[in-house]
Amino acid sequence: MEITGFNLIGNRESAKGGNTFFAKNPATDAELTVKIFEATREEIDEAVKSAQNAFNEFHSKTNEERAVFLDTIAECILELGEPLVKRCMEETALPEARITGERMRTMNQLKLFASVVREGSWVDARIDTAIPDRQPVPKSDIRQMQIPLGPVGIFGASNFPLAFSVAGGDTASALAAGCPVIVKAHPLHPGTSELVGKAILLAAKKTNMPEGVFSLVHGFSTEAGMAIVSHPGIKAIGFTGSFKGGKALFDAANRRETPIPVFAEMGSVNPVFILPGALKERNETLAAGLISSVALGVGQFCTNPGLVITQKSEDSKSFLNHLKTRSAEVPSGIMLSEQIKRNYLNGINNLIKSKGVETVNSGAEDESGNKVGTFIFSADYKTFLENKTLTEEVFGPSTLNIATQDKSEMIRVAQALEGHLTATIHGTEADLEEYADLVKVLEQKVGRIIFNGFPTGVEVCHSMVHGGPYPATTAVQSTSVGTAAIRRFSRPVCYQDFPQKVLPAQLKNENPLKIWRMINGDMTKEKI
Amino acid sequence: MEITGFNLIGNRESAKGGNTFFAKNPATDAELTVKIFEATREEIDEAVKSAQNAFNEFHSKTNEERAVFLDTIAECILELGEPLVKRCMEETALPEARITGERMRTMNQLKLFASVVREGSWVDARIDTAIPDRQPVPKSDIRQMQIPLGPVGIFGASNFPLAFSVAGGDTASALAAGCPVIVKAHPLHPGTSELVGKAILLAAKKTNMPEGVFSLVHGFSTEAGMAIVSHPGIKAIGFTGSFKGGKALFDAANRRETPIPVFAEMGSVNPVFILPGALKERNETLAAGLISSVALGVGQFCTNPGLVITQKSEDSKSFLNHLKTRSAEVPSGIMLSEQIKRNYLNGINNLIKSKGVETVNSGAEDESGNKVGTFIFSADYKTFLENKTLTEEVFGPSTLNIATQDKSEMIRVAQALEGHLTATIHGTEADLEEYADLVKVLEQKVGRIIFNGFPTGVEVCHSMVHGGPYPATTAVQSTSVGTAAIRRFSRPVCYQDFPQKVLPAQLKNENPLKIWRMINGDMTKEKI
């Protein structure tokens, strides 16, 4: 499949605008072939109108038809073959194994959502049957289910060119819910985006989905994004990226004449609490595990552990020494872009200059291309509490160790945290029981609490929560990974005293889809 | 129980402020006894801190303990006896049967949420078990459930002094979720609010709930409300009332350093579509039913039908004549306050002056006290589409008939609608099948679609949706009535690789609470 640099507006390729840009290879900063055309307001308007036109037909498709569409997208992505992997490597400098692994994850996500749609119970069908002779007034027959919100705008992330991008979790869950999708491609991987976008369009064609069910627009500036979020036809936004980007979309969405929900996942510092028992038992192993997690993917994960809280002891000294040794062994890695490298080094320099912060390891000096090394810092409890900037995310391979005196200081660190995606506790089982109050505090701060593991690596399953209180996300009640993510793009509607014939299949007495339903308060798959 | 006019800050009565006001009897505009003290910022801060202190203990209570608390609130409200009914009648001019009926509904709501908490499955427990030998990486054990958001601010409505007020659906669902509640009492019924607030505090004492689980603050100006929504300790807002009030809270919540969700139910015009078959079959009955619904409670319901869409025919002429006759027979009724009456008459005058709008019936002239009569207007399709103000809610007993030429005009009226709480369709079954596309349009506009009924009367049950797209609410994905309302005040959290001992009861292998859980994708009550 050829890369043209055009926008994909419904089934048409379109390049009406005068603003263009080129993707770059982060390893060399060389421009890649093919000029990319930024979408104009007119093109975005066409894409949204096309999505609006497609909406009724798309959400009237059967569960099976929608599931086959999602499965077919997965197949069509795989069929893009080597050219996709090659272009993606050129645009991101990520290694081949990572790209093919991420492609597998992307396909599995699509298939998982296909299975959720096929099974069908996600619509939370609820039926209360009538009681015509109830006193003082008869009770009506009322039936509720989730229906799709309408056309959705999705903003891909820089750091997951496949799994959190054009056909990533946001798109998969929105299509699964029955919403047409307009993707704003991330400007760091426009070629990858176009290829995947074309795979989605091919799948739509193969499975007879209406034109407009998917569009892809390019944009290097913020203009295209703002045109999407402010378009009256857009009913929700999915976003993965920086706090600045997510907050700008959130504010724009709330300024609209009709505000819409914004599901922005904006990253996190992912504190790791190492309890005394664990530190005593295995401080070298912990240091090795932590550095692996910090350095994974050159630290470019929103679940990267940027804060490690310990209690001062001989064990913590030894732990810090191991951190130093291990991090010094990490080879430098290429970041996703010159801008991302610059932001990382700015963050590092802020830490270096911060009063009371000690640099435990300075990343290697080899800075050719966009290579950076791993940095380790340490500070005490007081320094941490006095300097709010120490809890800001430094996107890249670095972490800050906070040394506390005792349990109460450790808990006060937890209490001082803002919202994060994850928190991790390393401990013995005895530690964990003794620190039950730490768990209670962390529950209020994050979406996921990990015991004796590391936060990187987000399992795509029914139980995952990839979310958390602001500023980790703008939507504390949602997750952007896992099957519960589908509920971001639906809302409840109820039908009162509707005849059987006209009710959606999910709510008919016969339960033709054989889904789980709550009937007069009881869960059942039975018919009425 | 004595009315003091004080704020209830945790278990203390408090009157630190200099601003005071009196409740009035709407029937006479006479001031009622007892001076009411507006809460100061300091008192609101104390209430929120008290709620924060109570939070951990409150949400650690067992399901049974929390359920008993809710049941006991219902009992304590009933035990307030005649003085509550009397004060409520004085403050609202609503008839005794309405007050006692609403008290029953309020108690039933509390008991329904108690049953939801007792049953326990609302937390949406999801468990994915570990696969330690999975390739290429092991799969962790991950377990998700809903936990409470934290202290919640609730704003009672003027028009439901019990069921949507201090111990109404918002408070019941927030307490059920495990959130401490701070209620801002509606200034039109402060005495009623205080009595019910004291019943909640008595129930809290009887069932050993921590101080701070509930507070009540008074405010006539908007200051107290703004102090609540902008307090960093408040994690969500529940509101029922005007668009202006709800939007102000929504904007303030989004301006916070940490934005919070606002569940504001802001009213609606509740369009009623009468299809040709039904109009032919029973236009007199329809007119009688509609006028009953319009005039019920002097039109002071957010589900009041303010718009009736018909197609021009001999039947529609006859229908309009019946509307005229029936509405002329409705006696005037007393509105809840002088301000509400003034707003109603302003809305009426706007309609009277609107070009192309005909006044079919003018409400009776008897305007002593705050009495108003029922008004009926009519306009054609073109007038309606050209004048956006015709879709604005006129809070009170009036309705506007839109006469269209045919099906396509009727559907275009539906398409032109903004978000509403409800839409109603009257038709034969044949009508409904022919107008399936009308149903599709209305699904996108409202939270509840009623067939051959009237929108007033909102059943409190598992399937109810009392919500809808903006501007009906600020939270299209939620309902404020029915058991699904509990999910407004919770959020998901997941635990990765946690030892059994430390997991919440809902997520332990043994399933000690015997709740429904999704285990590896399948719904079951079994243990693992």
Q: Which properties best describe this structure?
A:
homodimer, 528 residues, alpha/beta, seven-stranded mixed beta sheet, five-stranded mixed beta sheet, 15 helices
Describe the protein.
The structure is a homodimer of 528-residue chains. Chain A has 528 residues and is of the alpha/beta class. Chain A contains 15 helices and 25 strands. In chain A, helix 9 (276-295) runs parallel beside helix 10 (314-329). The relative contact order of chain A is 0.13. The mean pLDDT of chain A is 96. Chains A and B meet through helix 4, strand 7, strand 8, helix 8 and helix 14 of A and helix 4, strand 7, strand 8, helix 8 and helix 14 of B. Strand 22 (448-451) of chain A pairs parallel with strand 23 (490-496) of chain B, so a sheet runs across the interface.
